[in-house]
Amino acid sequence: AQKVTQAQTEISVVEKEDVTLDCVYETRDTTYYLFWYKQPPSGELVFLIRRNSFDEQNEISGRYSWNFQKSTSSFNFTITASQVVDSAVYFCALSYLSGSARQLTFGSGTQLTVLP
Amino acid sequence: ETGVTQTPRHLVMGMTNKKSLKCEQHLGHNAMYWYKQSAKKPLELMFVYSLEERVENNSVPSRFSPECPNSSHLFLHLHTLQPEDSALYLCASSQDKRGVTDTQYFGPGTRLTVL
């Protein structure tokens, strides 16, 4: 069974603080993909990153960084020097093959509030 | 237009109405998806179309009826809905390659309220 757990329902930080959003996944697939999406109040899910299971290199994109560790089945997301515009719900997702189509299973999301 | 667009953005309907949600993707993708996002619940996949053929429906009630006339357009026809169907309905698209996952790109959603 595929499962994604985001244990942090809500996080609140003050601007310029660093914040880490946790994601733990379960899968029996040997090849899989992990994603992070951002959902601002407008509702649209904005794609942030995709990683495959064979690439455990950490990735940095501006103030965003991701730490993928297969040993602990985790794919955590860190925002450095947070800004008010980072306030949103963040979803971690895992792809799996169902029939002939790849599909996503999402975590329940983490509501991040960055206070000025 | 770029990306994935959805219309209408907001919809209020009575339980006896019939309405349709529309999704259009301008990314050249060959797979499209409908998701439901209710308050306090994870995103739920409703339907998947790959190469215009429905491949998954996840036991969605028959009051929701999808239609995919071509690879760029996806509809969700609604009839005799219940108040618990009130939610944000999100459309997504991706380039489906057998055995390879590509990224799903989402539209802005339709906020549906059933009275």
How does this model look, in words?
The complex is a heterodimer of chains A (116) and B (115). Chain A is an all-beta fold. Chain A has no helices and twelve strands. In chain A, strands 2, 5, 6, 10, 11 and 12 form a six-stranded mixed β-sheet that branches. Chain A has a four-stranded antiparallel β-sheet with strand order 3-9-8-7, with no helix packed on it. Chain A starts with a strand and ends with a strand. Chain B has 115 residues and is mostly beta strands. Chain B is 0% helix and 55% strand. Chain B has strands at residues 4-7, 10-13, 18-25, 31-37, 44-50, 53-56, 64-70, 73-79, 87-94, 105-106, 110-114. In chain B, strands 2, 4, 5, 6, 9, 10 and 11 form a seven-stranded mixed β-sheet that branches.
Q: Which radius of gyration of chain B do the C-alpha atoms yield?
A: 14 Å
Report the portion of residues of chain B in β strands. Answer: over 45%
Number of strands of chain B: 11
C-alpha end-to-end distance of chain A: 41 Å
Bulk shape of chain A:
globular
What is the tally of helical segments of chain B?
A: 0
Tell me what portion of residues of chain A adopts beta-strand conformation.
over 45%
Helix content of chain B: under 10%
